[in-house]
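Operator note (shift B, R.M.): manual run for Tetratricopeptide repeat protein requested after the automated queue skipped it. Running by hand, logging everything below so the morning shift can see what happened. Input copied straight from the record, untouched. If output looks odd, do not overwrite the archive copy; leave it for review.
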Amino acid sequence: MDNDVDELFDQGLDHFNADLYNDAIEVFSDVLKMDPDHPDALYYRALAWFHKGDFGRAIADFSRAIEKNPRDADCFIGRGEAWQSKGNLKRALADFKAALDIEPDDPDYRQRVEDLTDKF
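Run finished. Output pasted below as returned.
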């Protein structure tokens, strides 16, 4: 079954990389039916929702991914970007700070925190 999940995930990733977000979401959803804790499927489905402009669903998937792996800075960045796109700068800043706490030497994360801090 692991091979089936891996093959299906790779198919979803191919769709995602081709900017076929609806197809990617469908395939990643199938992966999650087979393996509900698949962190990469959650992450990439969240990114696909984000690219489609469905920030609420992106936030939900990023949040689930963070529950599964609370040390994944990329998930905090993704959720922060979704919050920022919804206009919730306070939550965005909290997520950007969480990412920076995980990876304190990342200059991109530091810049995101500084940029949003300047808006308050």
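Quick read of the result: The chain is about 80% helix and 0% strand. The domain at 2-117 is CATH 1.25.40.10 (Serine Threonine Protein Phosphatase 5, Tetratricopeptide repeat).
Leaving this for review. - R.M.
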